[in-house]
Write a structure and sequence with these properties.
mainly alpha; 2 domains; 16 helices; globular
Length: 463
C-alpha cells in the first residue's frame, strides 16, 4: 500500500467520524421540540430520527456537489497535498463539534466543516486556494438569512395557531398538535439527511478525486452514499442529549402548538435549501424557528442570555474551526507525509477521548434531558417514591451542624415499620427538584419522616 492510499483511508475514516458527530450534534434540530413537549419519548425520538436521516441521505446529491467543488479550488492543488488539506479540515470540524457538544451549545456542524477546510486551504495555498464565490454565496449568505426567515415564519405561524385554536379545549388541542409534531419532526429528520449527510459525501468525493480514484465529473459512488448514511444515522441514534436539552428547554418553554409551528418552518426551509443545493446550517434554521415560536406565544419567556451565547458560538464557529484546521495542516506538513497525518490523527483521538470523559462528570441522558432548566442542573428526575427520602434529607441539611450528622446518619437505618434502608443515595442537586415535583404525592410520608427527624434532633444522645 502506498503512502497516498494510506492517507486516503485515514481521510475517509475521519470523514465518517465527522459524519457521526454531525449526527448526534444535530439530533436536537429535529427532535428537541417533540421531546420537550412530550410528543415523543426521548429514545423513540432519536430512533425515528436516525431511520429518517438514513433514508434522506439517499434522496439527493445536490449539496454534496457544492461541498466537493465549491469550497477548495481543485485547480490549485491535487494529490497528497489536497488529501492533507481535506484531512486537516475534517479534524478542525470534529474538534469544534465535540467542544460545542460538551458545552451543550448548538453550533453549526456545517460551518465547522467549512471553516476547517477553509483554514487548511489558506494555510496550504493562501487565499487563492478557496473558492470565495461559493463560500459567500452558498455558505455565508444562507447562514445570515436562514435563522431570520425561520424565526419570522415560526412567529407568524405560532400566533395564527393560537388564535385559530383559542376556543378549543386545551387538552384536546395538545393531543392534536403532538400528533402533528411527530409528522413535522420526521420531515426535519428526512431533510437533515438530504442536507447534512451529503456534506460528508462531498468531502469523501473530494478525497477520492485528490487520490486520482475518481474524475471530478464522475457520479457519486453508491458505497459513499451508504457509508455516510449509516454514519450519520448511528450518530443520530446515540442522541446528542446535551444539545437537545439546550434547544428544548434552554431557549423557551415549548408547548405543542409552538413545537408544530417551529418544526413546520424548519422542515420547509431545509427541504427547499436541499433542493437548491445550498449547504444550509440546520442548527441555525431550527434555532431560529424555536425562538420564533417563543416570540409568537403570548406570555412565553424567551431566554435571551442563552440565545446570545448561541449567537456568539455561531459567529465564532467558522473562524475557530479554520484556525484549528490551519494548525492541523501546519503540524501534518511539518512532520510530513503519512507520519504527519498519523500524528494529527493521534491528537484527534486523545482530544476526543478527553472531552468524552469530561462529559461523563455531568452526564445528560434520555432520563434527565427534560429536567427543569432554571434549576441550573440536569440531574436525573427523582420519582415520587424517592421524594420522601430526598425531602427528609433536605430538612436534615437545614438543621444545626451539631445535630445534622446524627440525623443524616439515622436516615440510613430502617424504621420500625419499614425494613428497607431509608436513603437511596439521591444526589443533593436533585433534592430541590424532587421536593417540587413530588411533594403532593408524598406529603404524608414526608410528614412522617419529618416527625422522626425532629425526634432525633431533640434527643441525639439516645441514638
Amino acid at each position: 500500500m502506498t503512502a497516498e492510499l494510506l492517507i486516503l483511508g485515514i481521510v475517509i475514516a475521519t470523514a465518517l467520524a465527522f459524519d457521526f458527530t454531525n449526527g448526534f450534534h444535530d439530533t436536537g434540530n429535529a427532535m428537541a421540540p417533540s421531546i420537550a413537549t412530550g410528543a415523543l419519548k426521548p429514545k423513540t425520538a432519536v430512533a425515528l430520527s436516525a431511520v429518517l436521516n438514513l433514508v434522506g441521505a439517499f434522496l439527493s446529491v445536490a449539496v454534496a456537489a457544492t461541498v466537493a467543488k465549491g469550497i477548495v479550488s481543485l485547480d490549485a492543488v491535487q494529490g497528497q497535498a489536497l488529501l492533507i488539506i481535506v484531512f486537516a479540515g475534517l479534524v478542525g470540524g470534529i474538534l469544534w463539534n465535540l467542544l460545542t457538544w460538551l458545552l451543550g451549545m448548538p453550533s453549526s456542524s456545517s460551518h465547522a466543516l467549512f471553516g476547517g477546510l477553509i483554514g487548511a486551504a489558506i494555510a496550504a495555498l493562501g487565499t487563492s486556494g478557496v473558492e470565495w464565490g461559493g463560500v459567500l454565496g452558498r455558505v455565508v449568505l444562507p447562514a445570515v438569512l436562514a435563522p431570520i426567515v425561520a424565526g419570522l415564519v415560526s412567529t407568524v405561524g405560532t400566533r395564527l395557531i393560537y388564535r385559530s385554536t383559542r376556543t378549543m379545549d386545551r387538552d384536546e388541542r395538545t393531543r392534536g398538535f403532538r400528533v402533528g409534531q411527530i409528522v413535522t419532526a420526521s420531515l426535519i429528520s428526512l431533510a437533515h439527511g438530504t442536507n447534512d449527510a451529503q456534506k460528508t459525501m462531498g468531502v469523501i468525493f473530494l478525497a477520492l478525486v485528490a487520490a486520482d480514484q475518481l474524475d471530478q465529473d464522475a457520479k457519486m459512488p453508491f458505497w459513499v452514499k451508504a457509508a455516510c448514511a449509516i454514519a450519520i444515522a448511528a450518530g443520530t441514534y446515540l442522541g446528542g442529549w446535551r444539545i437537545i436539552r439546550t434547544m428544548g428547554k434552554g431557549l423557551t418553554e415549548i408547548e405543542s402548538p409552538q413545537g408544530l409551528s417551529a418544526d413546520s418552518a424548519s422542515a420547509a426551509i431545509i427541504l427547499t435549501s436541499s433542493h437548491l443545493g445550498l449547504p444550509l446550517s440546520t442548527t441555525h434554521v431550527a434555532t431560529g424557528s424555536i425562538l420564533g415560536s417563543g416570540l409568537g406565544r403570548k406570555g412565553a419567556v424567551v431566554r435571551w442570555s442563552v440565545a446570545g451565547r448561541m449567537l456568539i458560538a455561531w459567529v465564532v464557529t467558522l473562524p475557530a474551526a479554520a484556525v484549528v484546521g490551519a494548525a492541523c495542516w501546519a503540524l501534518a506538513h511539518a512532520v510530513g507525509g503519512a507520519g504527519g497525518v498519523g500524528v494529527v490523527f493521534a491528537i484527534l483521538l486523545a482530544a476526543s477521548g478527553g472531552m468524552y470523559l469530561q462529559s461523563r462528570r455531568a452526564a445528560v441522558t434520555a432520563d434527565n434531558v427534560n429536567a427543569d432548566w432554571d434549576s441550573g442542573t440536569a440531574e436525573p428526575a427523582v420519582t415520587a417514591e424517592a421524594a420522601p427520602v430526598a425531602s427528609a434529607a433536605a430538612v436534615a441539611e437545614a438543621l444545626t451542624p451539631e445535630v445534622q450528622p446524627v440525623v443524616l446518619d439515622a436516615l440510613k437505618y430502617p424504621t420500625e415499620d419499614e425494613p428497607e434502608p431509608a436513603v437511596n443515595g439521591a444526589a443533593p442537586a436533585a433534592v430541590a427538584t424532587t421536593a417540587r415535583t413530588a411533594a403532593d404525592a408524598a406529603q404524608s410520608e414526608v410528614d412522617r419522616r419529618f416527625a422522626r427527624i425532629t425526634e432525633l434532633a431533640d434527643h441525639p444522645q439516645t441514638h
